[in-house]
Specification:
Number of strands: 0
Helix content: over 70%
Shape: elongated
Largest sheet: none
CATH architecture of the largest domain: Up-down Bundle
Radius of gyration: 27 Å
CATH class of the largest domain: Mainly Alpha
Distance between the termini: 36 Å
Structural class: mainly alpha
Number of helices: 16
Low-confidence stretches: 1-15
């Protein structure tokens, strides 16, 4: 089953703990606060500096958000409680880790780790998005080129060929028919595209697409493998962040369930949490999942038996990141010549279809 890459990417975004467009300002705020706290500045003074620079960095609405957070801190409210009220700017993961930092007295260290995690995740998102969007952009250019040829070039040949009285090959007649349909009913095609985009955003349809993507994602060549690696890298880094700060694994799994907007991924984590509470080992639970890998399961089993899950999570996440890089390089190297050939064949076919009657007229051959 093939899924358009742009639609696939929009669904994949639902599986991620950080939706960068939504939490862009909150993530940037965390990164700036991390730098200032590392410089040994008091929290209130750091917030004051960020607020003073907010006009050039953030919009007015988020500037007001910083002002309210600073006021809450001045009134003795903990940072994680202050930012929790601004869920449109701060992800549940950010709130959870800020709470960990407050309870452990290591806010600076937690902010540093969270800032590094945001940076790494953002880099992978950009690279992953580039790998998904590149084929769509190239094919989009091909479609626009073909539409231009059918709407402007083919009609010019149509008048010439009809006046010449030359019998038209079937392929040329097909191109002329498509050109005529596009010329007369282009607005209906545009309405269909707009209606389709609205249709796929309906809640019931989004849930169904979510279910299809979740079950068929690992089976999609190249992109499926890369997406699975990306999910593993992202969520294991989240769990590693919690374990590194002394938070139980169960709390980390529950946070993973909270921070994804995908209904299927929430059910996936709910299933893991339920069995984990029943006392089943994590490696055994994951061995029955659609995203499992025998090598990963073996490493997690070793980590659980030795009581050293953190280094195993970090190792798997690091290996996944390296495999993502290799897969993206492979996809880029393979797709570029293939897409160029495909675009050339499509455009060439349209042009040849128009010139076939002229060849027939000049050579006397029939096609």
């Amino acid at each position: 089953m093939q899924i358009p890459s742009t639609l696939l990417f929009s669904q994949i975004a639902n599986y991620l703990p950080f939706q960068w467009k939504k939490y862009k300002y909150g993530n940037k705020f965390v990164q700036q606060l991390s730098i200032l706290i590392q410089a040994q500045l008091p929290l209130y003074q750091a917030l004051q500096i960020i607020e003073d620079r907010s006009a050039s960095t953030f919009n007015q609405a988020f500037g007001h958000c910083i002002h309210v957070i600073k006021r809450d801190i001045h009134n003795g409210i903990e940072l994680h409680i202050a930012v929790r009220k601004w869920s449109r700017y701060f992800s549940p993961l950010t709130v959870s880790l800020l709470r960990v930092g407050a309870e452990s007295g290591q806010l600076g260290e937690v902010l540093t780790r969270l800032s590094n995690y945001i940076s790494r995740s953002s880099d992978y998102k950009k690279k992953f998005g580039k790998a998904l969007i590149y084929p769509a952009v190239v094919m989009g250019v091909a479609v626009v080129t073909v539409i231009f040829l059918l709407l402007y070039l083919v009609p010019l040949f149509s008048d010439l060929l009809q006046n010449s009285g030359v019998p038209l090959p079937g392929f040329t007649q097909g191109l002329l028919s498509i050109s005529q349909i596009l010329s007369e009913y282009w607005y209906l095609i545009g309405l269909f595209v707009i209606g389709f985009l609205i249709f796929v955003r309906l809640p019931m349809v989004k849930k169904r697409i979510d279910r299809v993507v979740f079950h068929f994602l690992p089976k999609i060549p190249f992109w499926g493998e890369m997406a699975v690696l990306y999910f593993v890298q992202i969520y294991l880094n989240v769990l590693a962040l919690f374990l590194k700060n002394g938070i139980p694994l169960l709390d980390g799994l529950q946070t993973c369930q909270e921070i994804t907007s995908s209904h299927q991924m929430q059910k996936f984590f709910q299933h893991i949490i339920y069995q984990f509470k029943e006392g089943k080992p994590l490696y055994h639970i994951l061995s029955d999942s659609p995203l499992q890998d025998s090598e990963w399961i073996a490493l997690i089993r070793i980590g659980e038996n030795a009581g050293e899950l953190l280094p195993m999570f970090q190792q798997i996440a690091r290996q996944s990141g390296e495999q993502i890089e290799q897969t993206m390089d492979t996809i880029g190297a393979a797709l570029e010549p293939i897409l160029i050939i495909v675009v050339g064949v499509i455009v060439g076919a349209v042009i040849i279809g128009m010139y076939l009657p002229i060849f027939s007229l000049s050579t006397g051959a029939s096609f």
